[in-house]
Amino acid sequence: MMRVLILGAGGHAQVVADILLRAHQTGASAYPIGFLDDNPVLIGTTIMGLPVLGTIAQLDKIEHDAVIVAIGDNCTRARLFELVRARGENIANAIHPTAVLATDVHLGHGVMICAGVVVNTGTVIGDNVILNTGCTVDHHNHIGNHAHIAPGVHLGGNVTIGEGALVGIGAVVIPQRTIGAWSVIGAGSVVTKDIPAYVTAVGVPARVIKYNKSEG
Question: Residue 12, SS3?
């Protein structure tokens, strides 16, 4: 059994815990032993039958085999992921047993794949990526590190999602389009043209409405 500490204890972390528990029931070696979270109200409590063991700074004091960063905000998740990677931590993936992945899909480290996700052939998923509930990722996509593909998103073939980008709930990206690093696509949008880095785009078709000053 691989003992996994979940970094974070909010709603997203609880989804990660459920995925790990369900996957373990179907034979996966990873098993969540508890959460670490910096909210003092949560420390010492139990969530989903798992203890909140302490703060993230106490990681070294708790025996474990691997960690997974379970924070929804892309920028915060990226910073913490890079911190624990620099410390030499083994970083686990969390893949729901109902997800369908082609045999040649390449997965990075710290990837979360939720229930009902489909990922087709030739796709590369970077580190610390969230593929949220029921999204579909068609053939030969490239999903950059720290990106979040929200519930119900559909990505056509040969789509590139830049590092740290967020594709909002129910959005559609037609084939052969690129979304730049740290950009945000609004919920329900349809991306028909390439979207540059560091912008927010919304609508049908998606149009840039804001230039983001920094990552996330």
Answer: helix
What does the alpha-carbon distance between residue 46 and residue 143 come to, in Å, rounded to a whole number?
A: 34
CA 132/CA 148 separation, integer angstroms:
7
Write down the residue that tokens 């409405």 correspond to.
209
Q: Could you tell me if 41 and 111 lie in one domain?
A: no
Summarised one tens digit per residue, pLDDT across range 142-164 is: 999 999 999 999 999 999 999 99
Q: Indicate whether this model's pTM tops 0.90.
A: yes
Of residues 86, 77, 84, 98, the one with CA closest to residue 163? 77
Cβ partners under 8 Å of residue 107, min gap 6: 93, 101, 125
Last-in-domain residue among 62, 92, 122 = 92
For residue 204, the enclosing domain spans: 98-211
- Joined together, the tokens standing for residue 138 give 């068609």
Shared-domain flag, residues 145 and 204: yes
Among 24, 96, 106, 139, which one carries the catalytic annotation? 139
Q: Is residue 216 one of the residues assigned to a domain? A: no
Sign of the alpha-carbon torsion through 51, 132, 163, 124: positive
pLDDT, tens digit (0-9, with 9 covering 90-100), for 29-87: 999 999 999 999 999 999 999 999 999 999 999 999 999 999 999 999 999 999 999 99
Q: Is 139 a catalytic residue?
A: yes
